[in-house]
């Protein structure tokens, strides 16, 4: 579909090979053009409303020019060998630029209806935009000749000089998959450029410098984990079914999309002060991110060493000194934080710092998703991380795998949860210096997938496959409240500290 410059006419193309024009004000069809073979997938009006011209393209890769005044096809433009993906016009209306999946862009003289230049761009182009004919040094535009911008399957924006066919500017390619660009449009009066990615995100740029202004997160599919971020819990981190992380500012809903992982992010955790957080993914790696006071987040460290997906991560609670990861390779690794990360003024000039696992321990006989992995292991951390913590006890009894474990604010309880029948048990653990409890026993069993201790450890929040969030009193095993807002399984759960607003 496409509107004309006056926004009173609407053109539509369909699977029947027809192009129809509709009067939006009077609500009736004004024109019905036939002659296109197969599906008509592209329509565009000429920018001069007095000329009453419509352009369309179908599966034959030809561009047809229709006259609304004569109700006929004026010309058929042939130069592309694959589907035409976009049509854009110069300000004076005498020149048209077409792009296609045949990896070329064609410049047309609309007065003679002839192709004047074919530019190979070496990628499948989904959208092309003609830039204003004025010098823009930031984009490599040094003359006032015709220049255009392309967006396609390489996931970057590039600027081309039409006369020479040379690329004069190439945007830095961001890491990670799913960055292919599917749409691009220029708002001339606002000086903004909007592009859409294959993973349903919108990126808004300042047109003269291509400096990223805003990001809009699209469809996220399943949300796998979520955490509050910032000393005042001002932001929320979301791990969805994607290698990208999304950081939302709660007050404005502004979004920052973080790239770094190359496969789906599975779990998150935040350090005590709220500026640093960790993520782990199917790419067998763990990353540490830092948010500054302006709300900008960058990756400051990364580590690899697991031989399978890293499904869980836990940050040290008392101070920012280490983190622990668990993987489907049946091992747990302890990663000390380099001192350089703890400096607020430290910025990774040469990229993220490389983390080194200090110790590795095989903890289970089967990986977490296995129905056989039905035991929970309680660990006692020594005063320093110079050696691996001792096992204080092993508890069994879960009906299926154990994808989540949470520790009580005080070190006497742990809460492993089971994914089989959505059950959570509160287990006693040994106090610091006391390893006389070799076999922890279950104090209480609650229904739930993920868990979070609240009310200074006297209550427990649980979420399950029924989409409900329940608040339990641990002492008497009583469900005191049920929150019903989700429509499907709840995978992630995180609550703010006691001293804050108590949000969930």
Q: What percentage of residues falls in helices of 4 or more residues?
A: under 10%
Could you name the CATH class of the domain at 223-378? Mainly Beta
Please state the CA-atom Rg, rounded to the nearest Å: 29 Å
Indicate the overall shape. Answer: elongated
Q: pLDDT under 50 segments (min length 5)?
A: 369-373, 397-404, 418-423, 427-441
What is the average per-residue confidence, as pLDDT, rounded to a whole number?
83
Assembly status: single chain
CATH topology of the domain at 223-378: Methylamine Dehydrogenase, Chain H
Proper CATH architecture of the domain at 223-378: 7 Propeller
Q: CATH superfamily name of the domain at 223-378?
A: YVTN repeat-like/Quinoprotein amine dehydrogenase
The counted number of beta strands is 43
Distance between the termini: 42 Å
Structural class by secondary-structure content: mainly beta
With helices defined by DSSP (H or I, 4 residues minimum), what is the helix count? 0
Beta-strand residue percentage: over 45%
Order of neighbouring strands in the sheet with most strands: 25-26-27-28-32
Largest beta sheet, briefly? 5 strands, mixed
Keywords: Repeat, WD repeat
InterPro entries: WD40/YVTN_repeat-like_dom_sf, WD40_PAC1, WD40_repeat_CS, WD40_repeat_dom_sf, WD40_rpt
WD repeats: 1-24, 33-76, 77-118, 258-292, 303-335, 451-482
Pfam family, one: WD40
Characterization of the model:
With 504 residues, the protein is mainly β. Among the domains are: 104 residues, Thrombin, subunit H (Beta Barrel); 156 residues, 7 Propeller (Methylamine Dehydrogenase, Chain H); 54 residues, no CATH class. 0% of the residues lie in helices and 48% in strands. It contains no helices and 43 strands. The strands form 11 sheets. It has a 5-stranded mixed β-sheet, with no helix packed on it. A 4-stranded antiparallel β-sheet has the order 1-2-3-4, with no helix packed on it. It starts with a strand and ends in a 20-residue tail after the last strand. About 7% of the residues have low confidence.
